[in-house]
Amino acid sequence: MERRQTTARRVNPRRPYVLTEGGLKRIILGAEEGSRELMPGHHAAARKQPRSTLPFERYQLVLVHADRGMLDEHARQAIAAAALLADLSTGVVVAVLGGTTADLGDCGADAVINLPELDAARFCPEQELALAQQLIDRYQPGHIFLPDRSADGDLGRRLAARTGRSIATDVVELDTAAVCRLVPGGRFARCALPQVVLLARHAADANLPFIGRGLVEEGSVPATPQPGVRDLGLETSSPDQIGLEEADFILSGGNGMRDMETFGALAKALGAATGASRVAVDDGRFPRTKQIGATGKTVQASAYLALGISGAVQHLQGIKDCRHVIAVNLDDSAPIVKRASLTLVEDAQALMQALLRQVESARTSAAA
Fold first, then answer.
1. Cys-Cys link to 146, which of 47, 71, 110, 156 (CB 3.0-4.6 A)?
2. Integer distance in angstroms from the first to the last C-alpha of the chain?
3. Helices 348-367, 260-270: crossing angle, 10 deg rounding
4. What pTM does this model have?
């Protein structure tokens, strides 16, 4: 067969590119491959335009609790929902109870008020309500958004009851006119957009095509008496007494983790809940209730330590909401490496033994 030569110029699809506002990939001709200036993530983020440059005449208010100075995806989605519903003359004010150093302009915040005194570890409902009322008096928001979960959901319900505002809980879909919410029995109901909106997880996408102004200020908390309320502090529950979906620290084993005795001892020493990949469950080393992934549990731990887990697509779906993923694997090209915040190329058994010795040594030193 005769081969014909062509003078048509070919474009390497791996060359640097940017993403257009419509989400299309546009290759940059003339740019060198590997150029830092045109790497997809950095360049696409830099090209995001401010949502509005107009003076704000109205405001939306978002109330969220930070966890040790960080906001999880659920909280960021609540901010994004407020930004998506705001017009060009409406600003998005975010009050962070507990305070944060994160850049919330990326998820649509125009003004961020840090309140480190109102940490989620403290129970001070009257102070939180007084703060909310203070912000309402200051900004006169059209709507107030909160994630529908624990402390945030409790604050939203208290606020609606105290002020007589309309409220919708478990909101899974919303627009400028109405919301769709989940009701008992697995059914859905629609209603007009209320004044207080408690959003279910994934009701909005925090990855926005625009950015907010992200101006930060330190707020002050009203000195409000709390009649009938006494904060007794936090009592830590045993990891075995809570569901994996609620666990903050998970130690998870896969096909490359075989030393179950050391695994159990390490989990106890670290105070971690235990999970497993589907392969380890099918092998009989873990009960089915410990399986994490698309066909098991979806978790949102602050720290997820994966021992000997390669990271099949189904497993990665189950840990997509985890804040920090630490992977321990002998294969540095395993799929979980791309998801991990930190990867240790090491044998899982050897690392468990070394880590257990370190924990025991640290406890001995602290007790001395």
1. 156
2. 82
3. 40
4. 0.69
